[in-house]
């Protein structure tokens, strides 16, 4: 049975569509028609999220890391046993105008936000945080590599080229970990939406 289940992945590797280091997809959600299983909302505002044109769109509402609305959260893999990457593609559908307007990935530990990898509007320009790497494109793919207590934040613009490393650091010891996609610090007088697509968690093999 295991050989049968792995056979499609092996075919993809032979076709060059999946690398050997990223052959194990633990979870994937393309948001084509509905949310995949296992997601929960934190402070849901039902009128400020939608599935549209094959992606999840969330309105960028005012708020901060501990008050964010419509944070979409799921249980993270056990990082004491598995090295993995969390990936998502995000697009600003309107030019961000609010200082610190942002969207991306947030890591929760014991129900509290402890780390974020985001595309953020600061002082009139867009950056990847952490690392403060310039990223002027409306679309970026974010990639958070987690290995035990180590994290590495990566990104690429417009789905082109190799991933660039923005920064690296440490997480608290494993335990009660969740990963979220979310956006916040939006303008109160304008409707700005961020599109989230191609979310996946991929097991990494050395």
In DSSP terms (H or I, runs of 4 or more residues), the helix count works out at: 1
Task: Average the pLDDT over all residues and give the rounded result.
Answer: 91
Q: Oligomeric form of this entry? A: single chain
CATH class: Mainly Beta
Beta-strand portion reads over 45%
Helical content stands at under 10%
**SSE order:** HEEEEEEEEEEEEEEE
CATH topology descriptor: Jelly Rolls
* Sheet having the most strands: 8 strands, antiparallel
In short:
This protein has 206 residues and is mainly beta.
Describe the 3D structure.
- The chain is mainly β.
- It has a single domain, classed as Jelly Rolls.
- Helix content is 7%, strand content 49%.
- It has one helix spanning 2-15; strands at 24-29, 40-42, 49-52, 55-59, 71-75, 84-92, 102-109, 112-122, 125-129, 133-134, 139-147, 150-157, 164-170, 177-184, 193-203.
- The strands form two sheets. Strands 1, 3, 4, 6, 11, 12, 13 and 15 form an eight-stranded antiparallel sheet that branches.
- β8 and β9 (125-129) form a beta hairpin.
- The longest helix is centred in the N-terminal third of the chain and has 14 residues, at 2-15.
- The chain is globular, with a radius of gyration of 17 Å.
Please specify the SSE layout and strand pairing:
Layout: H1 2-15, E1 24-29, E2 40-42, E3 49-52, E4 55-59, E5 71-75, E6 84-92, E7 102-109, E8 112-122, E9 125-129, E10 133-134, E11 139-147, E12 150-157, E13 164-170, E14 177-184, E15 193-203
Antiparallel strand pairs: 1-15, 2-5, 3-4, 4-15, 5-14, 6-11, 6-15, 7-8, 7-14, 8-9, 9-10, 11-12, 12-13
